[in-house]
């Protein structure tokens, strides 16, 4: 059937979605490398920091880091950018940033789920796994951050997997099954000895603390220590 005379259909705009990722600190094996990530939708970058959701020029949030960001095409979306921001803002309010539990990679993961029904690769999400066992390993975390990390109570119960589940429930049938959605649910203990940081521009290592990139780099450059501060087997 043709268009109804006298009416005009609104064209659906497809926007290109890209992932920007910058290594933090010196080059390390993949299991130890930390990253700052963000999402670019056409000509606008979206990232998360202590200010909440930042809307910037492409890769602008990566400027404070020494490495050059790698930009990867992820696909195309028909969803408006303002709809994504409106949905995610209540989950990523100003003052809720936490280096381990709720960082730029948590936000990127939720953006990709909302726009493309896909997930951020696990290699970028090591900090959430560490955040899941922060209480048990607080001494180690404090060592990595030079004593600068203090858990943000406003992000205590945050888990990106819960936000993603809500996004996919909102999307309806056809989304990945629950077992796939739960890939990033933190385990009871770290499955690898991760270092790294998802430190964002303008965001402190803790709740509203001063930005300190050197501490973030320290996270990325030191392996986990064994009992009494001795290196674990296999670490140098």
TrEMBL record:
Domain PPPDE: 10-138
Source taxon at top rank: Eukaryota
Signal listed as a keyword: no
InterPro entries to which the protein is assigned, alphabetical: PPPDE_dom, PPPDE_sf
SMART domains: DUF862 (SM01179)
Gene3D superfamilies, A to Z: PPPDE domains
Protein keywords: Hydrolase, Protease
Biased composition (Basic and acidic residues): 167-202
Region feature Disordered, mapped onto this chain: 167-236
Keyword Transferase tagged: no
Signal peptide region: none
Family in the record: Belongs to the DeSI family.
Protein name listed in UniProt: PPPDE domain-containing protein
